[in-house]
């Protein structure tokens, strides 16, 4: 009977390839998990900040119903010279959004019947889909939002 040589080396090489592929798959899975966790964290922050504004609206409901909290997305941060409680609340809230969320912005509107809508917007650079079908993945595709509606 002939003695086989080199079989052990081939088996070791196959094992190394299998282990390497497994390690790479684990690393990819971990990276995806970290990305998903970051997106969830941003969404949680946005939710807490929207609830923060609702609490401010409830605390100053007469001004909210009078329209003092009205703010459109991209409307800029109210001037520090305006010291009404509603404008101070808006300024603090918008500064918080800008500092905690990438591209953070917000909008607030209240109707005369007491229904208020608070929206929080941010940019999520991990989004890689061309959602608006314009041929490029840009900030328009990466803008994410959360909208809460409640009665005062």
Verbal overview:
This protein is 51% helix and 16% strand. It is an alpha+beta fold. A three-stranded antiparallel beta sheet has the order 1-2-3. The longest helix has 53 residues, at 7-59. It is rod-shaped. The mean pLDDT is 88.
Estimate what percentage of residues fall within beta strands.
15-25%
Poorly predicted regions are none
- DSSP helical segment count: 4
Name the assembly state: single chain
Largest sheet: 3 strands, antiparallel
First-to-last CA distance: 91 Å
Major sheet: arrangement of strands: 1-2-3
Query: Helix share of residues?
Result: 40-55%
Shape: rod-shaped
Number of strands: 3
Overall average residue pLDDT: 88
Structure classification: alpha+beta
How would you describe this structure in keywords?
152 residues, alpha+beta
Please outline what is shown here:
By secondary structure, this protein is an alpha+beta fold.
Secondary-structure blueprint:
Layout: H1 7-59, H2 61-65, H3 85-100, E1 105-110, E2 115-123, H4 139-142, E3 143-151
């Amino acid at each position: 009977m002939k003695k086989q040589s080199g079989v052990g080396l081939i088996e070791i090489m196959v094992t190394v390839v299998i282990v390497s592929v497994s390690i790479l798959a684990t690393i990819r899975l971990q990276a995806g998990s970290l990305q998903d966790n970051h997106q969830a964290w941003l969404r949680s922050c946005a939710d807490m900040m929207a609830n923060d504004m609702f609490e401010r609206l409830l605390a100053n409901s007469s001004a909210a119903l009078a329209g003092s909290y009205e703010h459109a997305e991209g409307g800029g941060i109210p001037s520090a010279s305006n010291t009404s409680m509603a404008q101070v609340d808006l300024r603090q809230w918008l500064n918080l959004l800008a500092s905690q969320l990438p591209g953070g912005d917000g909008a607030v509107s209240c109707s005369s019947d007491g229904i208020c809508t608070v929206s929080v917007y941010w940019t999520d650079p991990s989004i890689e889909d061309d959602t608006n079908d314009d041929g490029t993945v840009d900030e328009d595709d990466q803008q994410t939002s959360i909208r809460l509606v409640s009665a005062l």
